[in-house]
User: What shape does this take?
Amino acid sequence: MSNELEAFLEYISVTRALSSKSVEAYRSDLVQIESQTASTLLSLNSEKLLESLSNYSNKRTLNRKLSSVNAFFDFCHKQHFSEKNDKFKFAKIPKLLPKFLSYEEVKSGLSLIDKSTWIGARDYALILFLYASGARISECLELKADDIEGEWLHILHAKGEKERIVPLAKVAIKAIQIYKEMMPFESEFIWLNYQKNKLSRISAYKITQKYLGVSPHILRHSYATSLITGGADLRVVQELLGHSSLLSTQIYTHIQKQNLKDTVEVYHPMALTK
Assistant: This one.
């Protein structure tokens, strides 16, 4: 290991106080490159370095190593160990499109629930609530009776300690009311297990997995997708989801574009022309 690399690892460990796992990840990436090339990192030219990294076909692995290299070179430049300060561009990784369920798929899953018991009524109301509100599961599980006022939902435990108010469908409100009437005990929290404790994330996951085959977060994607395909403005969806940046909401633009394309293909006369 080169002296410069040792100094870098000491810097990120002591000065930047990174976790031992992060320090070890940097060390592993950079030592591996020096070992493969039988050279110190600073002695490698860009061509030789990129040639070594080209062995990594997985773009995520490649980008992690490029990030380590960039951080090391930036450190060496600032410490005057090197005059060069090469910055290598990351490989482009195709964005994974969010999985979602259609309204028909959600209804099909709901039809499997036995609502004659309070547990069944809870599962039914929970799935309806997640699909009707777009709430994160962490927000959902913190829900209290006072958080629903009329047809409005106050999300007071949102990510980043932010608050937002979203409209809630009447069918979801009614399902919650029926569930609460059937529940054999009282609590300040709405979603409870059979031991009167607040429902856990694992339990919520098991419920949506049992009837829909997906995680609770997929219902959040499904909520957003339903709005976009229905013609909702992207910024409105951003506000409803509680995204601090529109960039987070833009993962749904592919749905918007596909919906427009499908509409043109169905209704425009020239779309049928070959």
The radius of gyration is 26 Å. The longest helix spans residues 59-78. The mean pLDDT is 85. The first strand starts at residue 148 and ends at 149.
